[in-house]
Amino acid sequence: MKRFLGTIFALFVLVAADAQDIMRIEFKNKEVTEYYLEDIKDLWFRNSVPENLCIDFKDDDLVEFCVDDIDNITFTEAAPEVEGLPLPYTKSFASTLGDWKNYTTSGTGEWYINYNSAYATGYVGGQNKAGVFYLVSPLINLKGEAVQVTYNYILRYNRGNQNQQLLINENFDEKNPSVGWELLTQNHIEGSDWNTWAQQQFTIPNKYINKNVRFALRFECTSSASATWEVKDFSVKAVTEESLKTTLKADAHKRIEVPALTSNGLFVSNWTVEDGDSIMTYCYEFNKSQLHSNWVAYRFDRVTRQRNVSRTDAWADDPSLPSQYRIGTGTFSGYDRGHICPSADRLYSSDANKKTFYMSNMSPQLNSFNTGIWETMESAVRTKGQSATFADTLYVVKGGLVSSGQMLGYVNRTGGKRVAVPKYYFCAALQKKGNTYNAIGFFFEHRSYATNEKKLSLYTMSIDELEEKTGIDFFHNLPDDIETQVEKSYSATLWGVE
Q1: Which has the higher per-residue pLDDT, 135 or 32?
Q2: pLDDT digits (tens, 9 = 90+) for 486-498
Q3: I need a surface site. Which of 208, 250, 268, 303 has the fewest CB within 10 A?
Q4: 454-464 per-position pLDDT tens digit
Q5: pTM for this one?
Q6: CA–CA separation, 426 vs 442, rounded Å?
Q7: Matching CATH topology for 89-239 and 248-495?
């Protein structure tokens, strides 16, 4: 063995010039380890009993193997890297699964073609059958500045959370088909009929750009509950970052948290770029005559619930607003500059937090109100929003009413401008956990509150009731059946405001 291993050094010198060559170590227990020679700095023996083979890597890592455990060492040429299919890539699933492959990792079941779509269900022969199965795409090369995925789907009879997922993997192993995946989305809305297709569209995380990847549609069902999921018209295309930002902003009004827009308002959305992805900080509808927002909407999700920075106090006018609607950064005489989207709700980046200090996000609030019942409500909503256990996504809409008869008056600004002072404030919150939705409304008069008036439960209501008081159509971008169900009642226990 010692003579055999002694030849390794000569072989190493001969083949190390080829950075694609691999050293393969086969052990007597049948295990195999492989290393790229381009990563190895040196090979040597440690004088011990028994002797150890030492591999010194260029990153200064060191591994050792007992010589007596080694059966054979060979040097092989690495297989050339396979290039994925180019963009744009489309698969209709109209008649065949084509180059997508089934992998069942638990129980029974698989994807198949039905109703001109890729079809998954655990309900077979009048019974629910447990199973987890993946429909895996061919290798696709995500070359471009940014990449967007779009597909249409119908989801019915869902009884569990996180059972329909789109995943991505750059190191897929057919022998271990459930390993190495990253979740892209599991936000699929259950429909009310078999004819209405919903659309899912989002951008791929920046770390996968210019990589070869596979996608997977993962479906899970149990013996007690099974949905049916149909998917068609799956497409992956390259887009420019500028066009992506334009599209995102143009479609911002379609987001679940955004109320129905009015004809007299100016819709504005503020964005930041986080790890290459465009993230909406918040959006609002600005009342041009009252120089005050009609509402501000935002969400807590896996990115925006993070707490990475502290308060910036970066007071500024929103550069997105035309100059005639900017009110300057000075304090409001007799009132606080009260945040609608709180600074503490946008701590995932410094840029995002700075945008919460735009004056278009401010409302003239009595100090006792701003630091009292309003702050109590903000803290309660924030606690729920920052909890991934409570919600996959928490959608929030807040504001003060500034229509005629709903104001305390005005505060004066330079240049003869006047900012409305709301008489009432509100908050609407919508929880999404898996495919389950729950909502709650809060409504407050703008005044000081006595100690015995500070229980939040005194000011909670259903979204239907809140809509009657505010005249705002909340969460109208939900499917009608879900919107109707979620807005008619609320659970104080669920929201912790008993």
Answers
A1: 135
A2: 999 999 999 999 7
A3: 250
A4: 999 999 999 99
A5: 0.66
A6: 5
A7: no
DSSP string covering 278-310, please?
A: EEEEEEEEEETTTTEEEEEEEEE-TTTT---S-
Is residue 143 predicted with pLDDT exceeding 80? Answer: yes
Angle at 8 between CA 5 and CA 12, to 5 degrees: 165
Per the listing, tokens 């900012």 go with 419
Q: Domain 248-495 belongs to what topology?
A: Extracellular Endonuclease; Chain A (3.40.570)
Q: Which long-range contacts (CB under 8 A, 24 or more apart) does 340-344 make?
A: 340/284, 340/293, 340/295, 340/296, 340/398, 340/399, 340/400, 341/281, 341/282, 341/296, 341/298, 341/396, 341/398, 342/378, 342/382, 343/311, 343/312, 344/311, 344/378, 344/382
Q: What is 89-239's CATH number?
A: 2.60.120.200
pLDDT for 222-272, tens place per residue? Answer: 888 889 999 999 999 998 877 767 777 778 899 999 999 998 899 999 999
Flag the least confident range among 1-10, 81-90, 112-121: 1-10
Within 10 A of 94 (CB to CB), how many other CB atoms are there?
13
Give the C-alpha separation, 23 to 34, whole Å: 6
* Residue 494 CA: distances (Å) to CA of 272, 438, 474, 484: 32, 9, 20, 19
| CATH (residue range 2-77) | 2.30.30
